[in-house]
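Task: sequence design from structure.
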C-alpha cells in the first residue's frame, strides 16, 4: 500500500526519527502489565474459578505417579514373593488408577483449553482496540521500530502467548508439585549410609536425594549453556516467517493488480527472496537444536539407567527388596524429571518469549504513538470539534513527514459551510492535508477546527470495499440493516449502477468483481446513503470520463445542496464545478498554499 505520494510506508525507513527511548522495565513486568489484566477484569471471578480448577486437576495429575510409585513397590514385592493373591489385587488397583487418570485428564484438558481461549480472546480484543483506534493502524506504518506485520502479531503471536503461557505454567506447576512429592519419597527410601571421611565415619541421610539434585543441576547447567543460542535463533526465525506471511498476504490482497500487470514472475522472485530468509532462519534454528539434541540424547538414556545403577548395590547387599529398588528408581527418575523442566522446555520457552516480545513491541509502539505523536501539544496537529465553529478553520497549520521534514508551510484558512473548494497542485501534500483534517496525520503543528455535531465523509481514490454483502458495503461502517431495499436500489440507480440492484445480499470481493470506475461510483452510492454535511473527495472521480465526473458532481449538488465539498483533483472539468480554488505549489522542497482568486465570487479569507 502506498501513500498519496506513491511512497510505500515502512516500519524500517532509515530516514525516520525513532520514538524516544526510555529504559524499559523487566520482561516479566512488561508482560504482566499488559496481559495480567485478564485475571483482574470484569470476568475475574469466572477466570479465577477456571484457574483454581486447573490447579486442583493438576494436583490430581501429580497424585497418579505417586500412586503408581506405591503400586510399583507392592507389585514387584508380590512378584518377588510369587504371591498370586497380591498380584491380582495389584491388577485391580491399577484399573482404579487408570479410571481416575482418564477422568482427571479429560477434565484438565477441557478446563485448560477454555482458559487458553478466554485469555487469547481478551488479549486479541485489547490489542485490536489499541491498533484499530483513531487511525493508529495507519499511522504506525510510518514509524520506525520493530512493530511490522501487526496482523501476524495479533493472529499468531497472541495465540502462542496465551496457549504456551498456560502450557508452560501448568508444566512448571506440575513439576514443582511432583518434586515436592517425590523428594519426600526419595528421602525416606534413601535411609542412611555411612561414609568414612578422613578416618571419621559419617552417617548421611537422604543420599539419593542429594545425588538426584546434583545430577539434575549438572544437566540443567549444561543444557542452558548449550541452549542459549536457541533463543536468538527462534527470534530470528519468527521474524523471517512473519515477513514471508506478510508478503503472501500482500499478493493475495493485490491479486487483481498483479494479474493485470502479469506480475506473477516478479512476485515469485520477491516471495522466493523472502523464503530465503525463512530458510536461513530454519538452518540457524536447526544448528542450535542439533547442539541441544546431542546433549538431550545422552541425558535421556542416562536418566533411565542411572537411578537403577545407584540403588542396585543396596539390593545386591540384601538391605532392600526388589519392590523398594524399583520404587527408588522411579522416585529418582521422577525427581530428576521434575528438576529437568528447564531442559525439556527451553525451546518452547524461547519461542514463547519471542512471541511475547513481538506482541509487546506492537502494544508499546502504539502506546508510544499515543504519548509522543498524537497527544495534545505544540509538536503535532490538533484537530477539534467545537460548537463555536460554523466552518472548517486552519490556524497556523503546517504539515510534516513523520521524520520531521516539512511538507506544507504554515497557513491559515477558513472554509465556510456550503463552499465548493477545489484543491490542485502537489498530490502528496493535498492527501496529507485531508488526512490531517481526518485526524490520522498528526505530524506537524497548528489547530484544525470543525463544527460540532456535523457528519464528515471522506472518499479516497480507492474506496475500501469489505468482503461482505453489497448492502453491508453500502452501509459501511454502519450496520447493513440501515440500508433497506428501497434506499439501496435508489442509490445504485442514481450513480449508474442499476445492474447491481438485484445483488444487495450477494457476498463477494467487490473490489475485484467491479472495475475501478464502478468502485468509485459505488463510493458515491455510499455517500448518498450517508448524506454527510462535509464531503472530502480525494481524486474520487479520476477514473471516470468527463461526463461521468460531471454527472456525479451534479448529483451531489442536487441531492446534498447544503453540503460543503472539498475536492482534490487536477481534471480541467472540475474547476467550473467549484467556487474556490486552492493551489499547493512546491518550492524549495516544501509546499505553500495559496488561493486562486479567479474562482472566488466573493472575497476569500486570507491564506
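Answer:
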Amino acid at each position: 500500500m502506498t501513500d498519496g505520494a506513491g511512497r510505500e510506508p515502512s516500519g524500517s525507513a532509515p530516514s525516520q526519527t525513532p520514538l524516544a527511548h526510555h529504559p524499559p522495565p523487566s520482561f516479566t513486568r512488561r508482560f504482566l502489565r499488559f496481559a495480567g489484566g485478564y485475571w483482574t477484569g470484569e470476568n475475574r471471578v469466572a477466570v479465577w474459578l477456571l484457574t483454581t480448577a486447573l490447579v486442583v486437576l493438576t494436583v490430581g495429575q501429580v497424585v497418579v505417579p505417586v500412586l503408581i510409585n506405591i503400586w510399583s513397590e507392592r507389585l514387584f514385592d508380590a512378584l518377588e514373593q510369587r504371591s498370586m493373591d497380591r498380584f491380582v489385587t495389584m491388577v485391580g488397583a491399577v484399573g482404579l488408577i487408570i479410571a481416575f487418570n482418564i477422568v482427571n485428564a479429560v477434565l484438565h484438558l477441557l478446563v485448560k483449553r477454555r482458559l487458553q481461549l478466554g485469555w487469547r480472546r481478551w488479549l486479541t480484543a485489547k490489542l485490536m482496540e489499541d491498533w484499530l483506534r483513531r487511525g493508529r493502524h495507519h499511522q504506525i506504518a510510518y514509524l520506525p521500530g520493530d512493530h511490522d506485520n501487526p496482523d501476524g502479531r495479533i493472529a499468531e503471536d497472541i495465540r502462542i502467548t496465551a496457549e504456551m503461557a498456560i502450557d508452560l505454567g501448568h508444566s512448571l506447576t506440575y513439576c514443582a508439585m511432583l518434586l515436592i512429592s517425590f523428594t519426600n519419597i526419595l528421602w525416606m527410601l534413601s535411609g542412611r549410609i555411612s561414609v568414612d571421611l578422613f578416618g571419621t565415619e559419617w552417617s548421611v541421610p537422604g543420599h539419593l536425594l542429594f545425588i538426584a539434585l546434583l545430577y539434575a543441576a549438572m544437566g540443567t547447567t549444561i543444557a542452558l549453556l548449550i541452549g542459549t543460542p536457541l533463543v536468538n535463533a527462534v527470534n530470528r526465525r519468527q521474524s523471517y516467517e512473519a515477513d514471508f506471511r506478510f508478503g503472501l498476504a500482500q499478493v493475495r490482497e493485490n491479486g487483481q493488480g498483479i494479474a493485470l500487470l502479469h506480475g506473477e514472475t516478479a512476485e515469485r522472485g520477491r516471495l522466493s527472496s523472502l523464503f530465503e530468509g525463512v530458510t536461513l532462519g530454519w538452518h540457524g534454528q536447526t544448528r542450535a537444536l542439533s547442539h541441544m539434541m546431542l546433549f538431550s540424547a545422552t541425558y535421556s538414556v542416562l536418566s533411565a539407567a542411572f537411578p537403577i545403577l545407584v540403588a542396585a548395590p543396596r539390593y545386591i547387599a540384601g538391605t532392600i527388596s526388589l519392590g523398594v529398588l524399583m520404587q527408588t528408581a522411579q522416585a529418582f527418575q521422577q525427581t530428576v524429571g521434575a528438576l529437568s523442566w528447564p531442559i525439556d522446555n527451553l525451546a518452547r520457552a524461547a519461542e514463547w518469549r519471542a512471541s511475547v516480545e513481538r506482541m509487546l513491541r506492537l502494544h508499546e509502539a502504539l502506546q508510544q504513538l499515543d504519548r509522543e505523536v498524537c497527544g495534545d501539544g505544540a509538536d503535532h496537529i490538533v484537530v477539534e470539534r467545537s460548537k463555536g465553529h460554523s466552518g472548517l478553520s486552519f490556524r497556523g497549520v503546517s504539515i510534516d513527514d513523520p521524520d520531521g521534514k516539512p511538507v506544507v508551510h504554515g497557513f491559515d484558512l477558513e472554509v465556510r459551510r456550503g463552499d465548493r473548494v477545489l484543491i490542485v497542485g502537489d498530490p502528496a501534500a493535498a492527501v496529507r492535508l485531508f488526512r490531517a483534517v481526518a485526524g490520522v496525520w498528526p505530524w506537524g503543528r497548528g489547530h484544525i477546527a470543525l463544527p460540532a455535531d456535523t457528519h464528515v465523509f471522506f472518499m479516497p481514490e480507492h474506496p475500501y470495499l469489505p468482503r461482505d454483502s453489497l448492502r453491508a458495503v453500502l452501509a459501511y461502517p454502519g450496520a447493513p440493516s440501515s440500508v433497506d431495499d428501497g434506499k439501496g436500489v435508489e442509490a445504485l440507480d442514481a450513480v449508474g449502477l442499476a445492474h447491481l440492484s438485484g445483488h444487495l445480499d450477494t457476498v463477494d470481493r467487490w473490489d475485484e468483481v467491479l472495475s475501478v470506475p464502478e468502485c468509485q461510483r459505488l463510493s458515491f452510492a455510499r455517500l448518498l446513503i450517508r448524506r454527510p454535511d462535509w464531503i472530502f473527495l480525494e481524486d474520487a472521480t479520476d477514473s471516470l470520463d468527463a461526463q461521468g465526473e460531471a454527472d456525479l458532481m451534479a448529483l451531489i449538488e442536487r441531492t446534498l445542496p447544503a453540503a460543503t465539498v472539498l475536492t482534490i483533483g487536477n481534471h480541467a472539468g472540475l474547476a467550473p464545478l467549484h467556487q474556490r480554488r486552492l493551489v499547493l505549489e512546491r518550492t524549495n522542497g516544501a509546499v505553500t498554499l495559496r488561493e486562486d482568486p479567479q474562482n472566488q465570487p466573493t472575497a476569500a479569507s486570507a491564506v
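The two ends are 33 Å apart (CA to CA).
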